Amino acid sequence: MSGKYPVCTAKDVARVLRRHGFQIVSQRGSHQKWRHADGRQVILADHGNREIPLGTFKSILEGCGLALELFQ
């Protein structure tokens, strides 16, 4: 792991989440609630092609429990 965080949009993150078994269970406005069958849950604010701020991306990464390398 290089330690650098990638610049991702919500569409990029949604693609990785879907590929690893997460599904949208609800949405309120632009905020989507994604849940995995094993109970992991993450909230993703879908603002189209805008970049996700670093702190928000770290929170998403922590919530989904996936490796950083999957988002490269």
**Average predicted confidence as pLDDT:** 93
Question: Could you say what the CATH topology of the domain at 24-67 is called?
Answer: Metal Transport, Frataxin, Chain A
Count of alpha and pi helical runs = 2
Count of DSSP strands = 3
Structural class: alpha+beta
Layout of secondary structure:
Elements: H1 10-19, E1 23-28, E2 31-35, E3 41-45, H2 54-64
Antiparallel strand pairs: 1-2, 2-3
How is this structure best summarized?
This protein has helices at 10-19, 54-64, and strands at residues 23-28, 31-35, 41-45. By secondary structure, it is α+β, with helices and mostly antiparallel strands.
Could you characterize what this model shows?
- This protein is an alpha+beta fold and 72 residues long.
- The chain has a domain of 44 residues: Hypothetical protein (Metal Transport, Frataxin, Chain A), CATH 3.30.920.30.
- Helix content is 29%, strand content 22%.
- It is built from two helices and three strands.
- The protein has a three-stranded antiparallel beta sheet.
- A hairpin with a 2-residue loop joins β1 and β2.
- It is globular and about 30 Å long.
List key phrases describing it.
72 residues; alpha+beta; 3-stranded antiparallel sheet
